[in-house]
Amino acid sequence: MENINISTLQNWKNEKIKFAAITAYDFSFAKLFAKQGIPVILVGDSLGMTIQGHNSTIPVTIQNIEYHTKAVRKGAPHIFLISDLPFMSYCQINQALKNTAKIIQSGANMIKIEGGKNLINIIKELSNQSILICGHIGLTPQYTNYLSGYKIQGKTEKDANKIVEEALSLEDAGVKMLVLECIPAKLSRIITQRLSIPVIGIGAGRYTDGQILVMQDLLGITEGKNLKFVKNFLFYNGGSIQNAIKAYINEVKQGIFPSDKHSF
Ligand code: KIV
User: 33 alpha carbon to ligand 1 midpoint, in Å?
Assistant: First the structure.
């Protein structure tokens, strides 16, 4: 089996081939997802909620991400693996370098960090060390206290312009991929068109190059939340996890998911 790497994803962007990504946190699910053809897995700090039962991503530590990254990599040796740097683990350059080394040594191909212009120096420094970085803007769950909760971002013209500027400056600083979370579809369309790197959306509509979902949301086992941008693929595919993942991959590739019903 061929390894998926950053050039594969960049070629897909250039050729307008859409791709699906998913979170995973352990060996078994990573193996199952890879077997169904998922090319990109994220060890997200969403594990604070999905695995640890907290009500935010804030308690997640670098040791937690190392542990889950190692497990996922064992299950899925060929996929492109992105792992989050957790809350406050990349504020200072030396701290960011040290923590990135731990995550890459655990098996990740790329690290993901949340934020905009405040990260420019850190991104430049990590890029100088040939580290692949994924940015994450729009709704940034590590900063929900500052954002006053989990809310759609970029609804006003001023906020939308700020998000476009952040996206452009992150690309300029050296990120090789970008996640857009919970922003209006027409805003993510502008960003996806203006950026030359692959852009992945969650709650950001149909126009991004790739989509990502949290595995528990896609399998319909996240209780108590009615997330507009999520589809329960398990329910619509006869209760088979394998078929749910295949359907997710195909619907993203064909531009069926997300539909307008799943977009802001
Ligand atoms: O932590 C996570 O799972 C994420 C996704 C929501 C993109 O960052």
Answer: 17
Query: Which atom of ligand 1 is closest in space to residue 200's alpha carbon?
Result: 7
What are the extents of the domains in the chain? 6-262
- Residue 169 CB neighbours (<10 A): 16
The per-residue pLDDT for range 183-197, each reduced to its tens digit, is: 999 999 999 999 999
Model confidence, pTM:
0.98
- Does residue 164 contact residue 188 with C-beta atoms inside 8 Å? no
- Distance between Cα 44 and ligand 1 center (Å): 5
- Assigned CATH topology for domain 6-262: TIM Barrel (3.20.20)
Alpha carbons 87 and 185: distance in angstroms, whole number:
27
Instruction: Indicate whether residue 43 lines ligand 1 (CB < 6 A).
Output: no
Q: How confident is the model over 221-254, as pLDDT tens digits?
A: 998 778 899 999 999 999 999 999 999 999 999 9
